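Task 17 of the worksheet. Students: predict the tertiary structure of the chain below and write it out as structure tokens. Keep your answer in the requested format; marks are given for formatting as well as content.
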Amino acid sequence: MATGEERARLSRETVVDGALALTDTEGLDGLTIRRLAQHLGVTPMALYWHFKNKEELLDGLADRLWSLVDTTVDPSAPWPSRLRTLMNSMVDVLRAHPYAASLMVTTQPEAAQHCFDIMEAALRILADAGFTPAEGAMLCRHGLRTVTTLVIGDPGLKPQQTEEEAAEHLRRKRLSIETLSPSRYPCLIAAAGPFTKIDDPEAEFAFGIDLFVAGVEALAARR
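Model answer:
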């Protein structure tokens, strides 16, 4: 049973702080109530005063991620620039906490109240571009998938393995491409290096966002 002292020094904020720190180092699979309690130096029962189960804890973690996104944009800037700024802010947050990135897609908005702030900011930008609310909603969903996929697939993200294991994984991946039939896969073999390791992740992120924004601009121009 949780002691009065444990309850006094814990809050929802400190529990989420601990959950985020644990996820950053051990991934979502490593985030359990028991492991989090150990990380915080309390009994598991102490956590249930703030979150009744792991699902509710994950909702709180997702809400924390959304709260970190800076929605500040220059209102006088062209809408494509504002959209790019907002997406960059999201990518920055997810890159800082990549193992929790999937929560921003899987968690329902009503369970993460700060999500509404981001959605409102994005929909205002898209409305300025001439899109209807229904179109804006579709673009928001695709934009969210874009930024999360960019981060989850970040080639610079260290997996939960040693550097030697990661290097060996990349070596084998590249070798599997380079040993393909050159007559059947000449283009793939030529791109074996860039496919398995990207030397400039910053350029990769910028290109991904530019690609999405350019597509939205093209749609707006056709209206």
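Marker's comment: The radius of gyration is 21 Å. Residues 201-221 form the longest helix (21 residues).
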